[in-house]
Amino acid sequence: MTEYMFKKDITQDIGLLKKINTDLYHAWMSFHNSVFTDGALSKKEKELIAVAGAHITRCPYCIRGRVLTSKKHGATDEEIVEAIYVAMRFAMGAPFAYSSIAMEAYEAIEKGIPLTEGHFFKKDITHEIAHFRESSGTLSKPFMAFHEKVFADGALSKKMKRGLMGLACAHMTRCPYCIRGCVKDALSLGATKQEMAEAINVGMVMAAGACYAHTSIAMETLGAIKAREEERVKAASGTSGGEEATASPEMKAKPDIDCGC
Predict the structure, then answer these.
(1) Is residue 37 part of a domain?
(2) Which CATH number belongs to the domain containing residue 65 in this structure?
(3) Separation in Å, CA 70 to CA 29, 66, 78, 202
(4) Per residue in 177-204, is it b (16+ CB within 10 Å) or e — as a string?
(5) How many CB atoms neighbour CB 146 within 10 A?
(6) Is residue 92 part of a domain?
(7) DSSP assignment of 1-39, as one string?
(8) 3-state SS class at 153
(9) Confidence at 255, pLDDT banded by 50, 70, 90
(10) What's the pLDDT score for residue 99?
């Protein structure tokens, strides 16, 4: 195994994943490839949504791959950068919306209400968000300035950034408030139901794609386990009578289970 968790070339590891269960691999690739075809959204638009999604999942392989394919389908550097900023804004979005839980809990404690009463998540969090903004003091102004600049028309349209790319990111951050807000904005900006569905499908692929790329770690681990087992068998077969097989220094140094924790 290499000394790095993320090596540059994972082709061999993905090949092992495919070899172990070919049917599942082809089913996954069939869905993946179907999502990234021209439809209500173009391949280029989908790839740009995927660039944002890759930054949400923090997958280095997805980031590298989607930037390359975006350029291949005609995306400009400016469009790619704006997509990244959309991802940054939505990475903030869930904590911003979930601040409502913190503000609600704070008020409940002040009033002596047990925190175990009530339910997550109430539909109207206007009161709690107002309290969060007020409590944030001078931080609220630069945050809103950043928010407005990210979603302004630029290399990418506001419809794409807030309505479609944002909708995919909102699903990936699992923020119900962000999802609801993006649907509202998408409709107001002229997005169709088909465009929204395709954007969400891109988000689905990117969420799964990070798992797919990171199987390289699992496959490399399986390969290392197999190599150690083969070395043990080889060492055992080389002994005679009551002689005890002697493991190599490398085998002694590596335990069977190493979670890295």
Answers:
(1) yes
(2) 1.20.1290.10
(3) 19, 6, 12, 14
(4) bbbebbbebbeeeebeeebbebbbbbbb
(5) 14
(6) yes
(7) --SSSS-S--HHHHHHHHHH-HHHHHHHHHHHHHHTSSS
(8) coil
(9) very low
(10) 95
Retrieve residue 224's tokens.
């290392």
Q: Which token pair is 81?
A: 């950068």
pLDDT, one tens digit per residue, over 85-121 is 999 999 999 999 999 999 999 998 998 988 887 777 7
Task: Please count the structural domains in the chain.
Answer: 1
Residue 61 CB neighbours (<10 A): 19
Q: Is residue 231 domain-resident?
A: no
In this prediction, residue 141 carries a pLDDT of 96
Q: Residue 1 is encoded by which pair of tokens?
A: 């195994």
Q: Look up the domain containing 80 and give its range.
A: 30-113+120-213
Binning pLDDT at 50, 70 and 90, where does residue 217 land? confident
Q: Do the domain assignments include residue 236?
A: no
Q: Which is nearest to 206 in space by CA: 62, 10, 97, 12? A: 62
The answer on pLDDT for 63 being more than 70 is yes
